[in-house]
Amino acid sequence: MTDFKLISDTEWQQRLTPEEFHVLRRAGTEPPGVGEYTDTTTEGVYSCRACGAELFRSTEKFDAHCGWPSFFSPLAADRVIERRDTSHGMVRIEVVCANCESHLGHVFEGEGYGTPTDLRYCINSISMTFEPAEPGKQ
Ligand SMILES: [Zn+2]
């Protein structure tokens, strides 16, 4: 089994497109409103585009009108790692994949969205691959 934490930058560059590499491995951010999953409401599971680990479900996705796919909770708490991020002169909480430590986005708290957690996992579409649920199967 691949240990995704040991993959070198050179190998990531071969595995990912330049755009994916920039966001996943260089903590980049895709522009708002352009991501392919921003408005997706189809039932299914979002996996890490770098390693394939399942990260988020459509059942926790909500429309935050912020320009990026937003979730109020990950699929399971141990699927993501949250780290303090002080880049760009801001204090934010970065969200990375627990399996491969690729950058996914940030999580914001207390914005009053009326979701069960009052958290907004603001995730780049390009960091994820969406798999629609098969009809009749959970
Ligand atoms: Zn991953």
Automatic annotation (TrEMBL):
Hey, what's the signal peptide range on this chain? none
Q: Which cofactor does it need?
A: Zn(2+)
Q: Its catalytic activity? A: L-methionyl-[protein] + [thioredoxin]-disulfide + H2O = L-methionyl-(R)-S-oxide-[protein] + [thioredoxin]-dithiol
- Indicate the segments forming the MsrB domain, all copies: 9-133
GO BP term, example: protein repair
- Give Gene Ontology CC terms: cytoplasm
Transmembrane is among the record's keywords = no
Broadest EC class assigned to this enzyme? oxidoreductase
Pfam families attached here? Answer: SelR
Record flagged with keyword Metal-binding? yes
Question: A GO molecular-function term, please?
Answer: metal ion binding
Q: EC number(s) of the enzyme?
A: 1.8.4.12
Question: Organism's domain of life?
Answer: Bacteria
Q: What is the name of the protein in this document?
A: peptide-methionine (R)-S-oxide reductase
- Species annotation: Corynebacterium marinum
